[in-house]
Amino acid sequence: MKKIITLIAVAIAIIACKESSTEDKQVSEEVKTPAKPAVALYTFNGGSVGANDLNLFAQGETYKGTSKQLVDAFYVIKHPNGVLLWDTGLPEGLVGQEPYTTPDGAFTIARKDSILNQLATIGITKDDIDYIAFSHIHFDHTGAANHFAASKWLVQKPEYNFAISEEIKGNGFYAPDTFKELTNVIGLSGDHDVFGDGSVIIKSMPGHTPGHQVLFIDLPEHGPTLLSGDMYHFQENRDGKVIPGFNHDLEQSKTAIADFEAFAKAKKAKVYIQHEPADFVKMPVAPKALN
């Protein structure tokens, strides 16, 4: 009888040991999978762009005789270790004015509100912006940049070199005066992990401009997210892999599209085309955030 009791006790001890080992393993696995940083993405309206001649966003006659109303979004990314401003929208001289149509009739642009008013809706000021980065330096992305002279400007070196060159002068796609106050420059040579934990990564995708870039954000709930910059201007561009004839380098643009799509697929990222109205309305309106 004593022998049976002893055997039962040993069996119970072995089972308990196994259960304890399993629990320890589960705890260990949980410890090995850290929680994602509490990153939040805020979307703002930086103006509107009426593309009266949509064929400018193609080569040949792909969109001949058509037009489209585009948005001009900019974004704030809040991270536990800082704040990044991504793009700034159209020039603020448009605020309070009637929509402006370019002399050639190609575009009609407008902006309703200033960037500082919009940032105030999420409780931040210009002094709270640790980093500023543009997808690229076309005038519809740099329009309110000079407010952030104290911020660190994250820019690809080829983009910065172009920005200070003679080549930029007289080119209507650029307005260097809108970002001339940005002197705290951090030159990038390719991809850049902004906060060092993989949650916010600037991806170098040149072609549209010499140093065009896109932004990857790994949100805690929404998951992997990609802001397109001007990789595409609207969904039809992406569907047909259509490259605007005014891009800085057409061959680089083809490579960038392939790299962008491969990266989006590998990360299973949701892509938001920054000028596409249908994508803009998918985002929460600030002061609400995408988490």
TrEMBL record:
CDD domains noted in UniProt: AHL_lactonase_MBL-fold (cd07729)
Keywords annotated in UniProt: Hydrolase, Metal-binding, Zinc
Keyword NADP: no
Domain Metallo-beta-lactamase: 71-275
MF term (GO), any: metal ion binding
Family affiliation: Belongs to the metallo-beta-lactamase superfamily.
Listed name of the protein: Metallo-beta-lactamase superfamily protein
Species for this entry: Dokdonia pacifica
